[in-house]
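Hi W.,

Here's what went into the run:
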Amino acid sequence: MNTFFARLGGLLLVTALALLPGWAAAEDGYELWLRYRPLVAPAMAQLPVRSIVVAAPDSPTLRAAVAELQRGVAGMAGRAPAVADAPGPGALVLATPARAPAGVSVDWAALGAEGYALRSLVLQGRRVTLIAANTDRGLLYGSFAWLRAAQTGADLSRLDERSAPKVGLRLLNHWDNLDRHVERGYAGASLWDWWRLPDIVDARYTDYARANASLGINGAVLNNVNAKADSLTAPYLAKAAALADVFRPWGVKVWLSARFSAPRELGGLKTSDPLDPAVRAWWQAKAAEIYRVIPDFGGFLVKANSEGQPGPQDYGRSHADGANMLAEALAPHGGVVMWRAFVYAPEAKDRAAQAFDDFKPLDGQFAPNVIVQVKNGPIDFQPREPFHPLFGAMPKTPLALELQITKEYLGFSSHLVHLGPLFEEVLKADTHRGTTVAGAVKAIAGVANIGTDRNWSGSQFDQANWYSFGRLAWDPDLAAADVAREWAAQTFTARPAARDAIVALMADSREAVVDYMTPLGLHHLMGTGHHHGPAPWVDNLERVDWNPTYFHRASRSGIGFDRSASGSKAVAQYAPALARAWGDPRSTPPELLLWFHHLPWDHAMPSGRTLWAELVTRYDRGVATVDSMARRWAALNPDIDPQRHAEVTAYLTVQAREARWWRDACIAYFQSVSGLPLPAGTRPPARSLADYQALQFPHAPGR
Amino acid sequence: MNTFFARLGGLLLVTALALLPGWAAAEDGYELWLRYRPLVAPAMAQLPVRSIVVAAPDSPTLRAAVAELQRGVAGMAGRAPAVADAPGPGALVLATPARAPAGVSVDWAALGAEGYALRSLVLQGRRVTLIAANTDRGLLYGSFAWLRAAQTGADLSRLDERSAPKVGLRLLNHWDNLDRHVERGYAGASLWDWWRLPDIVDARYTDYARANASLGINGAVLNNVNAKADSLTAPYLAKAAALADVFRPWGVKVWLSARFSAPRELGGLKTSDPLDPAVRAWWQAKAAEIYRVIPDFGGFLVKANSEGQPGPQDYGRSHADGANMLAEALAPHGGVVMWRAFVYAPEAKDRAAQAFDDFKPLDGQFAPNVIVQVKNGPIDFQPREPFHPLFGAMPKTPLALELQITKEYLGFSSHLVHLGPLFEEVLKADTHRGTTVAGAVKAIAGVANIGTDRNWSGSQFDQANWYSFGRLAWDPDLAAADVAREWAAQTFTARPAARDAIVALMADSREAVVDYMTPLGLHHLMGTGHHHGPAPWVDNLERVDWNPTYFHRASRSGIGFDRSASGSKAVAQYAPALARAWGDPRSTPPELLLWFHHLPWDHAMPSGRTLWAELVTRYDRGVATVDSMARRWAALNPDIDPQRHAEVTAYLTVQAREARWWRDACIAYFQSVSGLPLPAGTRPPARSLADYQALQFPHAPGR
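Here's what came out:
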């Protein structure tokens, strides 16, 4: 593309471009938020880019930044700016400290290795825009920041922005298998065409890396945490290296999930015991082999002794033993081990408490290049969970926050649920141990929602979750609503009324899904295996803590999981102030009430309703919000291109139907348990409980 | 798209459109042969389309034809012609008999229900182009024929063409599973997003139907012949109906593969015995249910008692009993049963002879709406097979020819192999029973090579196999080379020198793959299960007739499968003239020699070489041809857009490597068996036989 684009030179393109009659003309979502559509007249006048001046050492990353600026300006203003030697009026000046033009004054130290400054200034009598950074990667991020400012309608003549990431490692985790099936993928197959790599390198890999770079995402774990050892063989490393070559100019490092038993499976060893010298030697040789083909390899992500995966406990060793052995192999090359804390042992004790109990005692035992990766909440990516008690509780251990962008438990890609508020909620949560969750982590990982679907994410609005993840990982202090506003302006329209209507709809969506699926702190009520739809009645699974009944504990006398002092005591894992507040139903916020407490159906809620009536009210509110979202989207018809508007409309129809299904099936079930009549005026479930229980989904995606 | 396009009206578009800087600008193959790029100046002057006049009853199909003409002319000439009431100069006139303008004289009867005539003529003093047909579908096909003429550089001022299909049913068979895995699919996942249907209807379904309509393909079996019963449940019928609604204007009927045991699996019956009244009633009710939601449903394709699929023989009934029971259910609705003859029983007799022995005795026993679907050759889609002996041998039974477009045994989508010559070879084969194969069939089915890959077929050149299948199914008398020329002109370039170079390269490709995989009548030498690469040494599979050693029978004394009178006698299944010729090695063409005969390694070949030397020569020739193809493609660099040129180049590199692998592994193996030295001057295999035998491909696609 770059070559093609370079040929284009300064050719003036007409606005009629958007009316191209070919198949490619419709907005299908492929371009994501990097659409670079022509700005409307007043904004266009503000876009005075006549040239690009490079005052920085040449590199592939710098060239990528310049090409992206040319592409963006060509799209928005109709003319690609040429690269010039000296800053004329209206130049974009990309500068690093050693080569910055005279008269440029920047607090370089504050920018660090990845940050940037954008500033409108007068240089040698000419009005120019400065993009300043210490590195080519900073210039790349600054270029995308300038393009974002232009696309969102910022005043480009008065820029004065400085930004540096607060979290150093911002990674996507792809749960992609080598056969291209994506575990919990709802956007088609895996982007990685392992069979054809490294010979065939899809142009889409570049666009993937561009999109990540535009957000500051700087790493990608390519394969599923439920890993195959094959990904560590020489042929698969060559394939991963081909992807790394594509990603490198865009600042995205390749990581791999490592199967702990690889020394046995691939190396022919008798054991994978992390204390065995031959095992350690095998991993050291493997690390050296990897760095020979991927010199900037990020490191390993490991799911060990969790849900059937092999791990150090198979040999009587600890998680620290396992992680440190891999860390030792990676350390000479600068690699990092991300060791997942998502573990729950086979015993029957409260599943929510197990990761804390397993990992907290290991604090201080991990090698310096180990990061323990902790899911946002103590169960598993539910519509709402309290933050995980490990955050703030392992001061001697670098932690990573693992978020799930793919909506395994939130309606797949069919439901419009903006995750920005969910991410914000956990990032800004006060651990009461002297830090927020964001302040307690060195890395943020997001389980990707990306696949081969033309729109990348399965539905248009799911792109916003990728976007919000990346932007909040770069700067957890951003407000989710502001990030949504940026996204909507770039992805749909910068016109304020329509943009704000979209943002309002997104803002409502997260609370809606909580309401129609799992209100008041309920969790894990979904269908078995595929996790599609409601199944609160399931009580017959292999492990007791896989059953929805284990989590809601509804009976004739009440509902909820008692994690207070009278129950599993898991609440005591939080800092004392929180443990006190959440240990008492009177001081527990309603949205976490049944997470921490088992309460009678007639428990009085702050609203004045009984718990049972409040539960029904919340389910109804969720359905009503989805209906309202659909109405508000319909009203946006004049503002949105036809294909994307119709597609979102179709998805909202599905969501409205499935929200009712969740509401009806859950109410029917809980009523059958409580034996209580429906509160006056409540619409009865549309079908019988038996009908809902009979539904089966043998070909649901993502399993 | 149509709505969007209609808005466009007569807006003049500039040639600069092709330089659109967005991501969509590069040629990625999505548009197939329907690219409608601006014609170069002299050809553009020949494109005098100023208006479209519709002299035919309105219908969705007619509107589709008009929209396609508008889209095509807008792309090629820069201006979309408006629909006019009366034929002005330069009009395209679409006419059916009842409404044809005065002065139009057409041999309507010769056109049948699907045919069309294109003619340049003077009407009321104005030069116009007539597209005439008896039906809207004929007008649709005629419109695509006119667009093809325009794109291939025909003289549009002197058109006089008439065409009507010689075979009534022209179907794609999709081996697509409900989880979107495609059996023997090498182009990504299934197009059919069953999970999201019927709510979400991908715009791509329309483009799929358009592409088929452009070739005259008039039906699609949506699901794998290894069928799940689920596809016959109400939810899946609703999904299929949504696809049928999209396809209908484009003349593409929906068919389904039916699982024979559905009455037991879905209906709760104790049996699926075709003579059981309850089973018959179940199928009749199911057919009625299908036609309620898909009124023009095509019918069922059935794989029964074949490779583990259930069938009538499970109940001691014949294939005719099974097919007739389904035919009875479909008959009231006009539906058809396609009953596959691809069967081979568990006994050890020559697998190539079994379908004939099973089906020939049933001739005359099938209901009128049953068509027996026979693969092109008696084994299974090998690079070369003799035509199947059933063609011409069942005069009382309508037959269908089943071709495989997806290249299960010909290098997947990685090898450039144009199948036109293979299709042509079988279609034009003289059965010596008074007809060619094409003359002996009522239907032609092609196992599709289409998936979610952006270019539809996995590689650019595999689009040509879809194209050639459709065009040859419409008119088996076409020359494969002419069809390739049409395709190359539309898909890559109409400039004669480059176009003809592409065609020449395609023409060589089929013989090349025969040479480097299975020369001289060898067959079934491929790897187990995935069918990737050579494995002539495999001799340990569950069934003896799954082993490559079963098929080549190589030993110290010779090689080949003796199907003559001294062997399995399978050659006697052909008409006497052929049985005589092919029963004797002296009159058997070299390309079928080892299909029919087991011969000593020193057997003298017409070339003067020994059989062993000839075998090595052919393997070498195959490799050399691929090298030549790569060189000739490289020379086309100035004529092809960069992205597609680079992609094809990368695939040719893979093919050259894998052709050597085939050649080296097969020669190494056959040499180990024959014990003979390599002929003088022969390059020895690059690696040891053991090396080739050790290769494994655990994640190969398409299994």
